[in-house]
Amino acid sequence: MSRRWIHNPNRCADEYLDGIEDFIEFARRQNPGATRIRCPCRRCNNTLWETIENVGFHLVRNGMIETYSIWNLHGEQVDHASSSNAPRVDNVEPIVDPNDQVMGIIQDVFPFASTNINQEGEDDVPTPIDSAEFEQYEKLLKNANQELYQGCESFSVLTAIVELMHGKIKYRMSNLCFDYFLGVFKRMLPTDNCLPKDHKHAQKVLHGLGLGYEKIHACKNNCMLLYKEHETLDTCPICNESRFKMTSQNRTTKIPQKVMRYLPLKPRLQRLYMSTHTATDMRWHKEKRVDDDVMRHPADGEAWKEFDRTFPEFAADPRNVRLGLATDGFNPYGVLNQHHSTWPIFAFSYNLPPWKCMKKEYMMMTVLITEDHGSQLMCT
After folding, report:
1. How far apart are CA 325 and CA 345, in angstroms?
2. Over the stretch 20-69, which tens digit does the pLDDT of each residue have?
3. Partner of 117 at 20 to 30 A CA spacing, among 28, 182, 319, 347?
4. Any idea where the Transposase-associated domain is (predicted)?
5. Which value, to the nearest 10 degrees, does the dihedral of the CA atoms of residues 304, 308, 314, 318 take?
6. Distance between alpha carbon 81 and the CA centroid of its chain, in Å?
7. What's the pTM value of the predicted model, to 2 decimals?
């Protein structure tokens, strides 16, 4: 049967709804008596089990994975050209080597470095690479190739850190809790293991992946940010307030009065174009959106269309990024501290389709502002 309906962006079309009915019927036939099957929607990604009725609902709401054209996880046999007796594929998770996944991440972050290493000895002139960037690449590559302990083939140092940090974030583990379990794991492993001893050292290893942030000092009275041409000043040029707190003379390090944390946005937007899947989704608003006067996405609104008419050169390239900003203040300490507030600023890419642009994994926190004196920080 034809599977073209999977790529139909209009999930209300008769072709798409009929395709879902064909899939549900196929799944019932291949799994007789089963009450739950893997859900192939874009959110569950064949990793979660749902009732057959819920699977149909998910496919209408989220859409099916576009690459899932052979339903092998639901009982379909793979047609091998070399053999007419194709074995049946069991409903098991696809085996993915975590070390290969980590190497893929490194190649995505440093595509030019990876290309130059692969093209060594060829006639083409390699792309020039910044020395500091290449040094970061070599450090990550070393950790990706180094065994967690002698004889360990399942995990490299970098793979182990990525897996543990992923679990920390997924299950909202505090740094103290993470340090405790990291210490326990380190004692469980052979004495020659290379696992970091705490969260701080694990972060240093991952720093080369570009997951860090910049600390920008701010005036105590919220006059300005002390960066760029004002980065070397010790006092605010507007109110003459000291940049640093008064500390004992024996202290060698200076403590800033106020700090704003900036998470660079440009590298994260670039990563959306490093993967073929997200790169295609970043052009969805232009290439796959159904223009039928129905409001499903900001691109259907009059404000978006008026912007296109005003700036035709920008609108001509669908890869140009359109962002939305959102912020709100909250007090993480509740009633324990009435004079503290935190202001995170999030950016959303409206290039993505509506079922992705507001998902948690595509929300990018760009700035974190903390205020301890009850007044708002004015960024200029």
Report:
1. 7
2. 888 988 888 888 878 888 889 888 888 888 888 888 888 888 888 888 88
3. 319
4. 3-76
5. 60
6. 38
7. 0.57
